[in-house]
């Protein structure tokens, strides 16, 4: 397929590279051109504008937040965005973790323009993206999701189709990130408790993940906390705060109380206030040990 790819950060660069490896014609755009040059060495075509990446069958966006996705979708600074540039019938796939409200607005704009829109956020860290082992959460019209099967197969190990309404995938993704943040906080508190009593954190983690909690989230994030390994960030703490805020917004819209999410927002704010903005979001799990007399997250 002819695929435009917009956003070559830690996740996007790996996803785009896997699409090239799978034999798709990839045209890539990124605000920082250095990432585009790296991908071009692997066979992608560089695009100097958003519009130049929108001439094919599909354009994928993998960007940090609502502002970035909104800018490339609707245009900014007089430059046309995806809605103004994508051919009729072509598909915009948003793999970014964005708000439910923005996904709804993007879907309406594409429908008005005669284009198709699929939300397809992913679960997995950069190492999973590099291994084409992401889990894709897809929502959109059945024909559009079906047409995208070769794309999703190239970047992930399994695709979950959750709804014909694109914004539902964004809600599911936000709920998943909320659960991961909950795991990070609870693991950090438990490790701070046993660690202050002299228990080795890695030994404790091995016990937990060999008995009660064998899930990947406990192994991955527990390992990062046990090793105080928060740099370089696979997913930065300020993005974790962004996602928790979006979860709270969705809860307010649906009139669902989320008291743990409110706590997590405050924990991320504490981490950022202590200089942890660009640490991995798992550093939030080191706050309890810091507050109990240990080193500040990122300085262990």
From TrEMBL:
Keyword line: NAD, Oxidoreductase, Signal
Xref: InterPro entries: 3-OH-isobutyrate_DH-rel_CS (IPR002204), 6-PGluconate_DH-like_C_sf (IPR008927), 6PGD_dom2 (IPR013328), 6PGDH_NADP-bd (IPR006115), HIBADH-like_NADP-bd (IPR029154), HIBADH-related (IPR015815), HIBADH-related_NP60_sf (IPR051265), NAD(P)-bd_dom_sf (IPR036291)
Under the heading SUPFAM superfamilies, the entry gives: 6-phosphogluconate dehydrogenase C-terminal domain-like (SSF48179), NAD(P)-binding Rossmann-fold domains (SSF51735)
EC number, UniProt record: 1.1.1.60
Q: Where is the signal peptide?
A: 1-16
Q: Where is the 6-phosphogluconate dehydrogenase NADP-binding domain?
A: 2-160
Protein name, UniProt field: 6-phosphogluconate dehydrogenase
What is the species of this protein? Mycolicibacterium aurum (Mycobacterium aurum)
């Amino acid at each position: 397929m002819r695929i435009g790819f917009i956003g070559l950060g830690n996740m996007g660069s790996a996803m785009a590279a896997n699409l090239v490896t799978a034999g798709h014609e990839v045209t890539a755009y990124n605000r920082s051109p250095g990432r585009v040059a790296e991908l071009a060495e692997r066979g992608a075509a560089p695009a100097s504008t958003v519009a130049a990446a929108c001439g094919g069958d599909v354009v994928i966006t993998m960007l940090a937040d609502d502002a970035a996705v909104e800018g490339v979708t609707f245009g900014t600074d007089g430059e046309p965005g995806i809605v103004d540039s994508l051919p009729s019938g072509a598909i915009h796939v948003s793999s970014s973790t964005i708000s439910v409200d923005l996904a709804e607005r993007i879907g309406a704009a594409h429908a008005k323009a005669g284009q198709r829109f699929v939300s397809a956020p992913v679960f997995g860290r950069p190492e999973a993206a590099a291994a084409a082992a992401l889990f894709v959460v897809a929502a959109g019209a059945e024909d559009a999701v079906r047409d995208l099967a070769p794309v999703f197969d190239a970047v992930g190990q399994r695709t979950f189709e959750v709804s014909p309404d694109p914004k539902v995938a964004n809600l599911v993704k936000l709920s998943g990130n909320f659960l991961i943040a909950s795991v990070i906080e609870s693991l950090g508190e438990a490790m701070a408790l046993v660690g202050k009593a002299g228990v080795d954190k890695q030994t404790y983690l091995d016990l937990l993940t060999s008995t009660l909690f064998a899930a990947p989230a406990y192994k991955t994030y527990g390992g990062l906390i046990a090793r105080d390994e928060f740099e370089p960030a696979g997913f930065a703490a300020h993005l974790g705060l962004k996602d928790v805020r979006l979860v709270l917004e969705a809860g307010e819209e649906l009139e669902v109380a989320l008291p743990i999410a409110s706590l997590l927002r405050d924990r991320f704010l504490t981490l950022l206030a202590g200089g942890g903005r660009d640490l991995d979001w798992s550093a939030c799990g080191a706050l309890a040990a810091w507050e109990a007399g240990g080193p500040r997250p990122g300085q262990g």
